[in-house]
Amino acid sequence: MSYIITRERTPLRKLIRNGAHFEEYFFGTTKIASSEPPHAPRNMAIREIIKRNQGRKRILQEASTSSHILRLVRDNFPERVRCKIQLFNAIGTTLDYHHGIDGFFELKRGIATFDLTLRSDKDILKANLFITPEDLDSMENMEQLASSIAEILKGRNDYNILDF
């Protein structure tokens, strides 16, 4: 099931029932683990997700919010860099259960992690940023979110367009 970004005046938060529903709204689908995955260090868990998806063409559901955000993030980079930016879903993995990371964007050596949350008052930031329903309520908010993600990726890569 996929969702189209809400364009009515109704705030997105009113349409989201719970955290799992928000994850499904964002990614277009969710992976439910039958049991809690074993703990692994954060970097090892990230490498495992990348390795598991290496060589596979990950197809984001076209109408999913995540595919739209990925396009907006890519728009912050020169054309030749855009295709190198990847988005990984970590729902149901060690990163999700043990590290509070629902997904991450990757560009070369840089990673920008995020936590999808209904609680904008969380005080412990385990990921690089929180994504709340308010971040997705308008095109302006989504563009600001994409810009923040791009800035994290640029900072993590000692960004120089000549390197790509």
Q: How many extended strands? A: 4
* Order of H and E elements: HHHHHEHEEEH
Approximate shape: globular
Helix content: 25-40%
* Structural class estimated from helices and strands: alpha+beta
N→C terminal distance? 36 Å
Q: What is the rounded Rg?
A: 15 Å
Mean pLDDT: 80
Query: Residue ranges: pLDDT <50 for 5 or more in a row?
Result: 1-9
Main sheet strand line-up:
1-2-3-4
Count of folded domains: 1
Q: Major sheet: size, sense and barrel closure?
A: 4 strands, mixed
Strand content: 5-15%
Summed up, the helix count is: 7
Task: Tell me what you see in this structure.
- The protein has 164 residues and is of the alpha+beta class.
- The chain has one domain.
- 38% of the residues lie in helices and 12% in strands.
- It has seven helices and four strands.
- The protein has a four-stranded mixed β-sheet with strand order 1-2-3-4.
- A hairpin with a 2-residue loop joins strand 2 (103-107) and strand 3.
- Helix 4 (65-74) packs across helix 7.
- The chain is globular, with a radius of gyration of 15 Å.
- It starts with 11 loop residues before the first helix and ends in an 8-residue tail after the last helix.
Brief description of this entry?
With 164 residues, the chain is α+β, with helices and mostly antiparallel strands. It is 38% helix and 12% strand.
Please render the helix and strand layout as text.
Elements: H1 12-15, H2 19-27, H3 42-53, H4 65-74, H5 79-82, E1 86-89, H6 94-99, E2 103-107, E3 110-116, E4 129-131, H7 139-156
Parallel strand pairs: 3-4
Antiparallel strand pairs: 1-2, 2-3
